[in-house]
Amino acid sequence: MFTSLRPHRHDVLIAVTGLAGGLMLWAAGLHTQGGRLFAAHWVALVPLAVTAGLELLRRSRPQAAVALGTLALIADQFTTGSVATILMYTDLMYAAVVYGTPAAARRIPVATFLVTVAVTIGFFAWVRDPEALLIAVATGLVLFAPALTGVSVRNHREAADAARLRADQTALLAERDRVQAVTAERSRMARELHDMVANHLSAIAIHSTAALSIDDPDTSRDALGVIRRNSVDGLAEMRRLIGLLRENGVAGPPSAAPTLASLDALVEQAGASSASSGLTVTLDDGRGETGPLPAPVELAAYRIVQESLTNALKHAAPGPVTVRLRGSRKLLTVEVGSVLGERPGPRAPGSGAGLIGMRERVALLGGTIEAGPEPRGDGVRVWLVRAELPVEEGTERS
After folding, report:
1. C-beta of residue 375 within 8 angstroms of C-beta of residue 381
2. How confident is the model at residue 252 (pLDDT cuts 50, 70, 90)?
3. How much is the pLDDT for 133?
């Protein structure tokens, strides 16, 4: 990958500071050694200037900078020397580990350690004097110590980067979970609102249309009675939903969610609302003694029956509407059938949201649902909704 050669401003500052410090030491006549091959003091400025220039490459070309810096440091040993050159070289060694490739960061500390050990053994074997250990210490401070410091800094930076990455990933996952939770809650609210209100509003729409289109006082009075009853019931359902949504409602605790025990009242209400359309609603509860059902299953079954009766009120031809329940220890079966065909009188339009809501409710419980036309034995076609709901605890999915 291409890396810009433009030096970082901090690298420029290090280079300028190192060069200025070396020039001041040179002007003051402070040198690290004497009696070298190039005894002229000005010659020591060459390695100093080269090392200062390499500081500009400490980030962009760290490995090349330390390699050339090593040559400059060796050349400095043949002059009167400068402390500034040595200090800048240690910075180049440190930068090679911190900013270099991962392979270089692994090799350089090992190589500098081996060089330090070799210098220690070599000088001690040559000089045979404990003072040779000072040279080994100086070598370690110039080579191995900066590399080791670079390893520590690089490890801390990589750990910090990994921690930031994990934090970003955690935040992203949390945001996704939040969005999914909000979406799921909005879908649940949409299902509840549709199932609670659609039944009452459909009855109101059909009977208000009948009252307006048929000039008969008795028909209008019956229609207004149905309209009032559905208006009151719909308002009560809306208040219940508002109570569920409000965390600290002033109207007191919300009422319990509807259960299958309320099906008799639902069927009776649906029969009263649809009598003028020629529909007769009956309930066939053949569950037997299967024990209590989980609350999510009861609510889903109730809403499926409610929505199916609403669809029958909107679209069914005159005839029987049958609600049938069958149950076992593992499965609850809900069937609602109504006659297919044309019928006289007003009809309420449908949006398809009810079927979508029923499928979502069944899918959350891990069940199955089918809705479509089926032939009946006497040649009459019926629209049949059939849902199978697992009744084992813990079947609801998030």
Report:
1. yes
2. very low
3. 77
Q: What's the rounded Cα separation, in Å, for the pair 184 and 192? A: 12
Contact 308, 322 (CB under 8 A): no
Cα separation values, 123 from 48, 49, 351, Å: 26, 30, 93
How large is the average pLDDT for residues 351-376? 83
Q: How far apart, in whole angstroms, are the C-alpha atoms of residue 380 and residue 371?
A: 17
**Domain 259-398 class in CATH:** alpha beta
Give CB contacts under 8 A, 24+ apart, made by 187-192.
Answer: 187/360, 189/241, 189/245, 190/353, 190/357, 191/303, 191/357, 191/360, 191/361, 192/241, 192/244, 192/303
pTM above the 0.70 mark?
A: no
Specify whether the CB–CB gap between 255 and 298 falls below 8 A.
no
Give the closest residue to 300 by CA, choosing from 271, 260, 338. Answer: 260
Residue type, 269: Q
Residue type, 27: A
In angstroms, the CA 267 to CA 263 distance is: 6
pLDDT in tens, 185-241: 777 777 777 666 666 677 777 667 766 666 677 767 777 777 777 777 777 777 766
- Name the residue ranges covered by the structural domains of the chain: 9-171, 259-398
For the chain, where are the E strands, in sequence order?
Answer: 279-286, 319-327, 331-339, 368-375, 381-390
- CA-to-CA separations, 376 to 302, 310, 339, 381, 382, in angstroms, rounded: 25, 21, 9, 6, 7
